[in-house]
């Protein structure tokens, strides 16, 4: 099972910030994490969402739904950030 971390508003929307989730691909993981919340599902799939797998930030082009996950992977989702 992958360890999933939700940062900021994503954790608020889901009602949790850390959980073990069984999924073989990033797309399946997003579905499990979003559950029945279409708003959270849309935000997790957004190109501007930060997706970090095992401490590596994945650009949008490298995180298709069929991106394979290993059982001990750590996947974090975070809202986009901006500087000032």
TrEMBL record:
Instruction: Return the Gene3D superfamilies for the record.
Output: 3.10.20.30
Alphabetized Pfam families for the sequence: ThiS
Q: Which domain of life is it from?
A: Bacteria
Name of the protein in its database record: MoaD/ThiS family protein
Which species? Brevundimonas albigilva
């Amino acid at each position: 099972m992958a360890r999933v971390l939700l940062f900021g508003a994503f954790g608020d929307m889901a009602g949790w910030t850390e959980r073990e989730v069984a999924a073989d691909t990033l797309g399946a993981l997003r579905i499990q994490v979003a559950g029945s919340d279409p708003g959270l599902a849309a935000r997790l799939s957004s190109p501007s969402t930060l997706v970090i797998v095992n401490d590596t930030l994945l650009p949008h082009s490298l995180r298709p739904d069929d991106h394979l996950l290993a059982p001990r992977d750590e996947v974090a989702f975070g809202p986009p950030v901006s500087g000032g």
